[in-house]
Write the structure tokens for this entry.
Amino acid sequence: MGVRAASDRGVGNGGGRSGLAVAVLFTVLAGCSAGGSVPEPVGSVTGMASPAGPDPSSGGSVSVSVDAGHYPAGRAVIVVSVRNGGPVPVFTDDQKSDCTVALLERRIGQGWVGLRACGAERAPAVVHLEPGAVHVARIDLGSENFRPQPVTPGTYRGVVGYRPAAEPSGEEPQLAVSATFVVT
């Protein structure tokens, strides 16, 4: 679930109750972040940290794994495998980290911040995974996509959001999360 800008919800355009709800939401979110001093990353990010693990409602049918537990910063290629172990097809969008279906998240304090680094000038493509299918994504840490927001040393994980239907594009209510790995 993402947070939309106030203009997307009608604030300032006679938004009424929905405008008030958005204002309260932003106040609550600001209050939640006021306790820590987490620096705001440079470049385009997800804007909100993802939950600590996969969505329990997914039944664990989609899994995400990476090919190693350690990568050198700026020179490595992380191979992310997304497996649909469920009985029905699932769908996800690309244009996340290095324009793949996977989002790299870096641990900052007790939370996670996404590196949504993709310079492609097109709409995201929908990726369809049949039951039993494996989608392999290659995230090149030296890619031009990471120039505005480099992958620096730290603890990371791969996250793939997905949904049970091709539409609506852009909505991925279920998450699969890899084990953590280290970039040095």
